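HUMAN: Can I see a protein plus its fold?

ASSISTANT:
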Amino acid sequence: MHSDSGATIPVCQDWTRKIPRQPDGEAFVLHCTGGLRAIEHEKKSWHIEPVFDDKAPSAKGFMSKETLNSFLNQNNYSAIAFQSINWSKGKYHSRWSPIISGQSNHFQSPADLWGNIASNLSKARISDHYEKAASTNLDEIAAVLDSTGEIERFARSISLSLRNMDISIEQIVAFYNDQLIHLMASGHIRGERSSTSSDQTLFAHVNSFFMHFGAARDYLASLIAERMYPIIAKRLNKSPKIDSLGKLVGNLHPSDVNRDNLIRMLHSKTYIAQNPENEEKFMTSGWLANATSLRNTFTHHRPFGDRFVEQSGYAQVIDENSGLYQYHRPLVSDDGEADALSVIAHHYQKTVALFFNAAFESGYDTNLLKLTDNDIISKSNRTSKV
């Protein structure tokens, strides 16, 4: 924007204030349903928050990890994910690690595993190119990196979609925690309904969660279809475009179950089943069918937040004497009314299990990519090839 006179407008010097930067620090957090979270105080020592004490939201400690687990089970809280947070020289870093059912080590998330698969496929694809390349021009490097094979592309898309799901649920649990603290601080803990302008953030992230779930599901279906393409095309005598779970299931035959590990896994876990009306056809079933139905509701029929009861939330008592409450925000579906985070946490846990198992059943390399000196290109900056 320029002044009419053409004169240069200087930066005003009347008032100056340094923009504060977050001091160095770190935190390790366990996020749970209801707006509760546990924070590691020292090794093997945790406190929980918020707890209503002396008419105010408070932090209470300390518990061992074993006691914390028993406490959560006793009060019907569900653990959703660990989050490692770090501030270094003002920069914020976060690592989100969903709880993986049946596993004791949650360090590598399904998003990590599928990212590893894509990176390892990428390294194998481009290694010969860079050994022979005479140029390290950034545009040429970008062109080679982006010239992915279909399996590599789908694996990367699965990883990104799962990471987007992680971000969505991270924001939802943060909203729940904030709202529970605000209701405690204002003394509104008797079921008084409350809504604020920040509800729009919740609506956005709930709808986003289901959108990214659907994307991850369809990218996995596309990856399976790519693996099965010669067989499906030969059987149908045509070249079908399969870019969704529905299209994959519609083109599968019972004989395909034993031809691909991923199809075998989907069938054995009852994610897909033979159609009772036509045993030559498959259909989605069990949890995956339910999750897909909910995804379709919030993607094609109406957004979350559309119903009146979804437009406000309230605090529910769990143990008044102990000061334990949870935030409740209704979500309406064909199954009735339930708490939004509880519903999402259920589908998130199931999705995490699906993609964790699928990564290992795929037969691709899930190990963290290891770079050597030969994988680094030097020009003006050191640029990683993968």
Summary: The first helix runs from residue 65 to 74. Confidence is low (pLDDT under 50) at residues 378-386. The first strand starts at residue 25 and ends at 32. The chain has two domains: 25-98, 155-361.
